[in-house]
Design a protein that fits this description.
Elements lengths: L10 H6 L3 H15 L7 E6 L11 H5 L5 E4 L2 E4 L9 H5 L6 E6 L5 E4 L2 H5 L3
Antiparallel strand pairs: 1-4, 2-3, 4-5
Length: 123
């Protein structure tokens, strides 16, 4: 049996453990292995399935740096534990108000956006 590499990240255990501290630690490990820095520890992402054109474009999936968005049975799925709330999906989406991202900055300021022009205007 091959030895387990110390640099690999077990994504399945990341998604199965419910402990917040363990989740945060595993998320940090996964993002480090992808070379992605997390700027927003708290946030939320949602996709309006009625307005999403995912079947025809999948632009948000291609734009996501952490692969938090994926294609599943006729719609775009979200692995929220992998999302860093960067807004790349909103910037690439051709439908306004389809993808909504809410994130909290370190200073406590909450940002909400669902249109590319709103992401560009953020401070």
């Amino acid at each position: 049996m091959p030895e387990k590499s110390s640099s690999s990240v077990d994504i399945f255990s990341l998604l199965s453990d419910n402990s917040e501290r363990a989740k945060k630690k595993r998320k940090e490990e996964l993002l480090a292995s992808l070379g992605v820095k997390e700027f927003f520890a708290e946030g939320n992402i949602s996709i309006n399935k009625r307005t999403c054109w995912g079947l025809e474009c999948k632009l948000c999936i291609k734009a996501c740096p952490t692969n938090a968005l994926y294609w599943k049975t006729g719609e775009v799925g979200i692995v929220e534990d992998l999302c860093v709330y960067c807004g790349a999906c909103v910037l690439s989406c051709m439908v306004d108000d389809c993808i909504k991202v809410e994130r909290k900055r370190e200073d406590g300021k909450v940002e909400r956006f669902s249109k590319p022009k709103e992401v560009v205007k953020l401070e």
